[in-house]
Amino acid sequence: MVAYLRESMRELKFDPPYVFVIFGASGDLAKKKIYPTLWWLFRDSLLPTNTRIVGYARSGLVMEKLRKSFEEACKVHENEKQKFNEFISKCSYMRGQYDKPEDFEQLKALIGKIQAENNNQPVYRLYYLAVAPPVFESITYQLSQHCMDNGDSWTRVVIEKPFGHDLESSTKLSNHLSKLFKEEQLFRIDHYLGKEIVQNVMVLRFGNRFLGPSWNRDNIASVTISFKESFGTQGRAGYFDTAGIIRDVMQNHLMQILTLVAMEKPASLKTEDIRDEKVKVLRAIKPVELKDVVLGQYVANPECAHPDASIGYKDEKDVPPNSKTPTFALAILYVHNERWEGVPFFLRCGKALNESKAEVRVQFKEVSGDIYPPGELKRSELVMRVQPNEAVYLKTDD
Fold this sequence. Notes:
alpha/beta, Rossmann fold, 2 domains, 6-stranded parallel sheet, 11 helices
């Protein structure tokens, strides 16, 4: 991926101005993921040199305060501080509402100022919606009315999951966006796919001969995809209680990993070909039955190592006392096709658990004609650890 980015940078024939606008700049996602990622790209010379980053949110912040909120997550080393200051010089912040035309006119004016500073070269615009779903429609409508390009550059709109609360709301949002933008202007993003080990699942499967012959129901007993967090909602209880762990993690992060593990080899590495194979997997999964699901909600545990998880979920601020929102879920899915018929896929995720870990465990069946006494050897597992400390290893015995 990095090599591809470097090659793309070398192919740039000119250096037009780019504007990266982060809606929800004061939020958790922006501070922990987006700003640090932009910094790492800038540090490694993988951002166009003429890029400006504009944080947009409703909070009354100044840039220095915003900087302090994400600087720790950027993991700046002592010898990188001058470079980091250069990065910060490309960042700015503006306060605005998500539904007021006058605030988007101010954003338009800011982009116009950047264009004027660059000899009126067309500005390429990328708008990243790191906000709660209820404001997706108002932001995208205001962007379409006030902040689009004139046809001499491009505009991109990036929308973070969750993409709707259910099928009805997802369809409603899709219809709304299709009236405002062309499909090539829209990018529906699950940031979890950016994890290196997730990107390497395809390399592991389709770039190695040794796995291919055994990657099927004849050799694999089960697949377990886990996402465990040792902490609670960390101030996101208001959002989390409307979503729950299934919408927050399972139906996006874990399902995306499942499709990569179960898909057939695509015709090419083109996005459309990979997407088509993923869709085939999803269509082969029958609706989950209640008997194949376990739900739970964490309670107070004063002995918990993580202070955020020492109180119960219902003790969190903004959580109703009668909330039944699940903070833990386990579901068993089956992919009904020739390769996977009968193999259970266990998806499990939860907060305030014993550890923070995300991994895929592919468990292989026992060897035919085993020469060892029954129970002496445990089943072999191929483990792909997503976090912490990304790794791939074969576990043969305890």
